[in-house]
Amino acid sequence: MTEERKNSGEPFENERSTEKIVSSENMFSEKPTLEDIQWKGEVKVGLPEFTEEEKKHVGQEMSDVLIYLVRLADRCKIDLPAAVLQKFEQNRHKYPAKKVYGKSDKYTAYE
Q1: How far apart (Å, rounded) are the C-alpha atoms in residues 111 and 97?
Q2: What is the 3-state secondary structure (H, E, C) of 25-78?
Q3: What is the pTM of this model?
Q4: How far apart are CA 4 and CA 70, in angstroms?
Q5: pLDDT 10s digits, 42-89
Q6: Among 25, 41, 98, 107, which one is most buried in terms of CB atoms within 10 A?
Q7: Radius of gyration over alpha carbons of the chain, in Å?
Q8: Contact 29, 54 (CB under 8 A)
């Protein structure tokens, strides 16, 4: 767990005693979504089709997802930064740049 997490999320949770009522089951069943951005089609750099208010809302939704993941990783004792680095390495092998550049096929197409 990062120092930043201890200095921000934990006090918030402790002040409200949410740690006692949050279970992994609840965390999975109440996970936040990004429906506002999900159904608008291709995501363009800078979200030019979004109003400033919509962009702010997307940022809040993304924050909910990140908070959820950090809390879940903490609960599961998963080193999330290490897991992300491992996933990047795994994907480098699954999707070699020379084979996949500009494509979005499933990894089985490149075997």
Answers
A1: 13
A2: HHHHHCCCCCHHHHCCCCCCCCCCCCCHHHHHHHHHHHHHHHHHHHHHHHHHCC
A3: 0.61
A4: 11
A5: 778 898 988 899 888 888 888 888 888 888 899 899 999 999 999 999
A6: 107
A7: 18
A8: no
